[in-house]
Amino acid sequence: MSEKLQAVKGMNDLLPPDSARWEWFEGCVRALMQRYGYANIRTPIVEPTPLFVRGLGEVTDIVEKEMYSFEDKMNGDRLTLRPEGTAGVVRAVVQHNLLYEGPKRLFYIGPMFRHERPQKGRYRQFHQVGVEALGFAGPDVDAEVILMARSLWRDLGLTDVRLEINSLGQPEERKAHRAALIVHFEAHADLLDEEARRRLHSNPLRILDTKNPAMQAVVEAAPKLMDFLGEASLKHFDAVRAVLDAVGQPYRINPRLVRGMDYYNLTVFEWVTDRLGAQGTVCGGGRYDGLIEQIGGKPAPAVGWGLGIERVLALLEDSGVPVPAQVPDAYAVVPDAAALATATVTAEALRALGRKIVLHGAGKDGPGSMKSQFKKADASGARYALVFGADELAQGMVAVKPLREGGRSQALRPLADVARWAAEISD
Ligand code: ATP
Ligand code: MG
């Protein structure tokens, strides 16, 4: 035997039965998107590296150290596995001129890649759901996307997620704040860690986002961006808050909420939980009115969020939310190889009527003993066994045998008229 190969560190296989959770979750997401009128978009996993450098900002965690980048061997192009979804969606929207017909509401589900230290809730391949509302300038749409996440928590049965919001204002307002920040941090340079000192002049705002507990005090005392916001920015923020208040959604204003990408302006928000330790942000987003122009499109406003599927599923598990099980209606037990063809014909007829049927798979030497087949039928979770025994087949019948408490009693049903009894074994 050759040496076993392993998956790349931080990149996980998703196996049954856990994958059932994922499918259920994705079903909830798709239903949610339809309720809000968001259409699905699917963009490539590989994008030109400059898209992220330009889109996310050069001095960000992602671009500085988390991207999986490589050179195309054929032509030397710089390529990157997408670390997030927004830049690619904006690239596609610009490339295909999608906003020509008016604003667009879009969503995506898919894998993202970041070279981070793997730990609980942090992986190198992880998965996001994202929404992007493009071409809308109004604060009502900021509130709309925030409330979509709230609806999702409700649909999933999650209660332990809190909303934090902030406003990053506009670039000029940030510039004034940035100057004040540099003055503050320069005055306390001895309290900064190496990373903060390096960012002091390149991206002082990101120092506020530090996870270093030793720097909490100096960060707490820093000038607040909110005090630098002009009238229009404050009005936008107040309008978002007014909608949240109107629908009774509580929130905390967190002046230190700055988000990891440079593209945000005005409203930013995160949905956080205390149940997942340090990896407590399950969903984050905000407005990015400058990004479309930055990627080469005609200037247009936009707002969106990204949600970490692994974290939401971990939260569901931690909160004990049950996931509807995927079980077959019936398991077809085939005592003798001679019955396999009839069993297949019957299973196909039942499946065509929408029943979920698992057919016992035969081995090299036939289907195996009844005992082992019934064991498998039981383990499948099916509520009925369909027994294709020789006696039953001779009468043109199949035995429908309940495997669970509360099922109907055992009965013979005609092979020739599956439609008459298919409903009996549905859930
Ligand atoms: P964090 O502060 O935890 O690193 P982030 O600000 O880098 O998060 P975003 O870029 O906003 O995260 O991505 C949106 C969501 O994607 C996060 O809120 C989180 O739920 C999830 N996420 C981000 N990075 C990872 C990762 N490496 N593994 C799993 N989930 C992730
Ligand atoms: Mg991160």
Structure description:
With 427 residues, the chain is an alpha+beta fold. Helices cover 35% and strands 20% of the residues. The protein has 15 helices and 16 strands. The strands form three sheets. An eight-stranded mixed sheet has the order 1-5-6-11-10-9-7-8. Strands 13-12-14-15-16 form a five-stranded mixed sheet, sandwiched between helices. It has a three-stranded antiparallel sheet with strand order 2-4-3. Helix 1 runs antiparallel to helix 5. It is elongated, with a radius of gyration of 28 Å. The chain binds adenosine-5'-triphosphate (ATP) and magnesium ion (MG). Adenosine-5'-triphosphate (ATP) binds next to strand 6, strand 10, strand 11 and helix 11.
Write the layout of secondary structure elements.
Layout: H1 18-36, E1 39-40, E2 46-48, H2 49-56, H3 61-66, E3 68-71, E4 78-81, H4 86-95, E5 104-113, E6 125-134, H5 139-156, E7 162-167, H6 171-187, H7 194-199, H8 216-220, H9 231-246, E8 252-253, E9 265-272, E10 281-287, H10 291-294, E11 302-308, H11 309-318, E12 330-333, H12 340-352, E13 357-359, H13 370-379, E14 384-387, H14 390-394, E15 397-402, E16 411-414, H15 418-421
Residues 84, 114, 116, 121-123, 126, 128, 260, 279, 281-284, 306-308, 310-311 line the site of adenosine-5'-triphosphate.
